[in-house]
Each structure stands twice: as C-alpha cells, then as structure tokens.
Design brief:
about 20% strand; rSAM; TIM Barrel; transferase; about 35% helix; about 375 residues
Length: about 375
C-alpha cells in the first residue's frame, strides 16, 4: 500500500496555540477543542497521532488527513562516561540530521538545541561551522528537540516514583533551553522566535523566559530586532577576541558585522531592554587566554551590564587548537573581577568523551 504524501502537511509542533485554534475554526470546529490537543502535545508528550483517544472524531480525522506530528527519530545516541551528558543525532524528514544535547547540572537539566542544519557563520574552531550551511530548521523542528528531551526525562522516572505536583508528571522536568547547538539562531530569526513563543506558552511547555538563552555569533540586525521587539529571553554573544583583526580570524562573520558595530548593537540592546548580555569567550591555549586578552575584554565591556562565560575549547579535528589550562582560566577570571568588576563563570565542560561540542557528532556520523 502506498504511503500517504505528507510533504504538504503542516507540522503540529510548528503552530502556536492561537494558530491551532484558528485552524480548527477553518475546519468548522470549535476552537475549544484545541485545548485537549495542546495537552496531548506538550503535557502528555504523545509521540503519535494515534495516542490521542479523547479527541473529537472529526478533529482526529482532519489531523490524520492534513497534519503531521513532527517527532524526530533518533539516528544515534551517545552518553558520557560521567552520566551528565547525553547527545542525540536526530533525523529530519529530508534525511538531514541535527544534534540535541541533554545536560545535567546540580539542580537543573538543560537541553541544547539546534536552529539550522549546519551553519553559514564559519567559526574556525566550531565543527558546525566547518560543516557549512544546508538549511534553516522549521519552528516545529526546533520545538520537537525540546519535546524529545522532555520525553526522555519522563521515561527515566524511577518505577513507583511519586507523581510530582506538576502537569509534567513523573521525573525531572526540563527547565532550561539553550539555542547553542548547530546553526546561528539569529540567521533563522522568524522560525526561532516562533519556536520560543510555543515553548513559553503557559498552557504547554511552560518554560520561563529567564530559562531560555539564545546564543549568537554577532548577527547585528537580529540583536537590534530582539531589542526592538523586547524579546524576554536571555541573549548570549560570542566574542572570543577583543579586537577586530583577532576576532575576524576566529569568526569570519565579523567581517560583515565588525566588532565596533556589534558592540554598538549590544549597547542599544541593553539600553532598550534593561537586560544584561552574556558574553561568551572560548578559551584557546596560548591564543586568547592570557592576561592581556583578559584586560582587553574587560576594557571592551566596561560600563555594560555583562556577564562573561569562559568556555574552554572543545577540540575539533578541523582546528589546530587546545583548551586552556585550569590555571589560565582561573587567572583570566580573576583579572576580570579584580581589575574591572566583571562577573564571569568558567563553564563546566560536558560530554568531551562523546563529541558534545556542537556539530561534532554529526561530522563523525558522516
């Protein structure tokens, strides 16, 4: 029997609750029926249209005929030896693959999700940048990654566990999402913001805006648009160098959006939103982890509401660099604090033994 053609079907994960209600009205159904469907998607975390027995029969028939549930099959799964990190290579309908990472920290669980297949920014030390750009993800493909991690967490709930007093049922609830996986989120602005709107819905995933972080390499128009739209999520900006020449050598997109333009956009963002920015600095031994570089970034960020995330390099086969040593990272942090009053955090390295840096698993699986 021939398989039904789903190429023109809308993905339920791509629709906001309001859009879902509008779709029901177009079908001649009452919008109130969207509430039960929404609960199936984001509270019950169903993985198939067949797992929705309480839907109105007319609605169920329409869904099967015209919609799809964009669950992403797992092509490859790896787990770190310390048990803190699990990485998934997920398959898209066109057979492309993307990476999603589940990371455990004290008191919290974080999902790191992708926004594109590959990336056009070309950062020299990033496996995704070395891969090149293929296409944007849809809002549903972004949301489906978060649902995948939530479903994994629910499945890990111990047998006989007492049901928590949350709508998300058993197990540890996913509370943090970072758009730091494959791709540049601000290069795929509309789809990313649609996905964020869905994730923030209080009747669905119900993530807090303060627990979603979007990381950009410095796409100036996107930063300014986020400011103008007063987007409530955290913004992280990848610096990696404090001068235009040094930054352009690591981040080729800096030639399009030079450092002075980027910093002007960051100042506009902070002034408009009243929010601090997280500035990311990948520490590469002998290249940008010295005291002089610490003082340069301190001077660059002077007067801005900022927090610096210091991230030891995740080595890739396409880049000849090594992660900074612990002593150098500690010294860098001390300079920022003592000489500039800048708060910073040396980020914990997770999943080094399973290629958890963005793009690394996808490259290895080719």
């Amino acid at each position: 029997m021939a398989l039904p053609d789903i190429s023109s079907r809308r993905d339920l994960y791509s629709l906001t609750r309001a859009e879902l209600q509008q779709q029901l009205v177009q079908w001649g159904l009452k919008p109130v029926h969207a509430a039960r469907l929404w609960k199936y998607l984001y509270i019950d975390l169903v993985s198939s249209l067949d797992e929705m027995p309480e839907l109105l029969p007319a609605l169920a028939a329409r869904l099967r005929a015209e919609m799809t549930l964009g669950v992403l099959p797992t092509t490859l799964e790896t787990a770190s030896s310390d048990g803190f990190t699990r990485k998934y290579l997920l398959s898209l309908p066109d057979a492309a693959t993307i990476e999603t990472v589940l990371m455990r920290f004290t008191g919290r669980v974080t999902a790191c999700v992708s926004s594109q297949v590959g990336c056009a920014m070309g950062c020299v030390f990033c496996a995704t940048g070395q891969m090149g750009y293929t296409r944007h993800l849809t809002p549903g493909e972004i949301v489906a990654q978060v649902v995948h991690v939530a479903r994994v967490l629910r499945g890990e709930a111990p047998a006989g566990a007492v049901r928590r007093q949350t709508r998300h049922g058993l197990g540890t609830r996913l509370r943090n999402v970072v758009l730091m996986g494959m791709g540049e989120p601000l290069h795929n602005y509309d789809a990313v913001m649609q996905a964020i709107d869905i994730l923030l819905d209080p009747n669905g995933p119900s993530l807090a805006a303060g627990r979603i972080t979007l990381s950009t390499v410095g796409v100036v128009p996107g930063i300014l648009r986020m400011a103008a739209e007063q987007r409530p999520v955290h913004l992280a900006v990848s610096l990696h160098a404090a001068t235009q020449g040094e930054r352009a050598a690591l981040v080729p997109s800096a030639r399009k959006w030079p450092l002075d333009e980027l910093m002007a956009a960051c100042r506009t963002y902070s002034a408009t939103t009243g929010r601090r920015i997280f500035y990311e600095w990948t520490l590469i031994e002998g290249q940008n982890d010295g005291v002089d570089q610490a003082r340069a970034v301190g001077a660059l960020l002077r007067g801005l509401p900022a927090h610096v995330n210091l991230i030891p390099l995740n080595p890739t086969t396409g880049y000849d660099g090594a992660p900074t040593r612990t002593e150098a990272a500690t010294r860098f942090k001390q300079v920022l604090a003592e000489e500039f009053g800048l708060p910073s955090t040396v980020r914990q390295r997770r999943g080094i033994d399973i290629a958890a840096g963005c793009g690394q698993l996808a490259v290895q699986a080719r």
